[in-house]
Design a protein that fits this description.
single chain, 340 residues, alpha/beta, 6-stranded mixed sheet, binds zinc ion
């Protein structure tokens, strides 16, 4: 099992508090320690407490966990590191129950870990989608409480989604078109949100918050889209043609999300829908560089969500290219659904 092997490698690299703390120290002070109190650089590590470093000039003790999700936690750093690794590398993410099994911690601990790590999954400074953007809504089934998920008997929520269309050759958010058809495209970044209804107010609030002004909106021509000002409109009337043909990428994202919610969570619970949607979007938008995701979850990396796939592969980072080699992307999304 590829996943188990990579976990054991990871556990070897981060086998104790000291190795985790040393990693965090390097991430925090890549150019060497600087005391936050006096600005001097001479420092001593405290042998008995690997998280703490003491300034040799003013005596101030600084923790490597300050400002991260791990601060003031009693859990070992190894548990945090392993949990974040599992949540970012496991192909479909990880529920608290799965994490409990993998790490041998209590369910309560596993649940707290997943909740805290998921909070790092929304980047408040993320850039809006741009270029040509497919937008559509879908109904997603959810389950109530802890009852078993029965598709025929489930409630429905309404989810709206948007996806950037990227041209394959250039990896830019400027797809070429021939007549009505965009040529050789693939999916860029996505956004998803739950909305209460199909009204113009609900739809406009989502688009305004997630898509840059001036972008071209590819939609099914629903009247709630057409009143949006500040955008170009390219309505695709879904008459004879099914929506997954005229809007393939957003439908691909919806279908992956459905599969993921059933596979990992056995159906979404209404109460947690927003958190789950955020997690799905986080994974999808970072599917090519998982190691950075691990650091983002722990609050170690100030990485921004990339503007496009082009930005990711342009980035000259050997650590990232090493992580791509020999491992499949998180989600297999680069082909549209064939049919149905
Ligand atoms: Zn100092």
């Amino acid at each position: 099992m590829a996943c188990a092997r990579s976990l054991s490698q990871f556990q070897k690299a981060f086998s104790d508090e000291a190795s985790c703390a040393a990693f965090m120290f390097k991430r925090r002070w890549p150019d060497g320690f600087v005391c936050p109190a006096c600005g001097k650089r001479r420092v001593a590590a405290l042998k008995s407490r690997p998280r703490l470093h003491e300034c040799l000039d003013c005596g101030r003790q600084t923790s490597v966990t300050a400002g991260t999700v791990m601060h003031r936690s009693r859990l070992p750093l190894t548990t945090w590191f392993w949990a974040a690794h599992l949540m970012t590398t496991h192909s479909n993410g990880m529920s608290a129950l799965q994490l409990q099994d993998q790490l041998g911690v209590t369910y309560k601990t596993a649940w707290l870990l997943t909740q805290k790590l998921r909070r790092s999954m929304v980047d408040p400074d993320r850039e809006p989608l741009e270029g040509v953007v497919e937008v559509d809504q879908a109904e997603i089934a959810f389950r109530e409480g802890d009852t078993f998920f029965e598709p025929g008997n489930a409630g429905k929520i309404l989810v709206i989604g948007a996806v950037e269309i990227i041209e394959r050759d250039t990896n830019q958010a400027k797809p070429r078109r021939k007549h009505a058809k965009y040529l050789d495209t693939r999916s860029g970044r996505i956004r998803l949100a739950m909305i209460s209804d199909n009204s113009s107010a609900s739809i406009e609030a989502f688009v305004n918050a997630n898509v840059k002004r001036g972008a071209t909106l590819l939609t099914d021509g629903h009247k709630s889209y057409l009143g949006l000002t500040g955008y170009r409109h390219d309505p695709r009337v879904v008459g004879k043609m099914a929506a997954h043909i005229v809007l393939p990428w957003i439908h691909r994202a919806f279908s992956l999300m459905r599969r993921w919610s059933l596979g990992t969570y056995h159906g979404l619970r209404r109460k947690h829908v927003d958190t789950y949607l955020n997690e799905f979007v986080f994974r999808y938008n970072r599917r090519y560089y998982r190691h950075v995701s691990f650091e983002t979850l722990l609050g170690l990396a100030a990485d921004k969500e990339p503007a496009s796939y082009w930005d990711i592969i342009k980035r000259d980072n050997p650590r990232k290219s090493a992580s791509r080699a020999g491992s499949a992307p998180l989600l297999h999304i680069d082909e549209p659904e064939s049919a149905g």
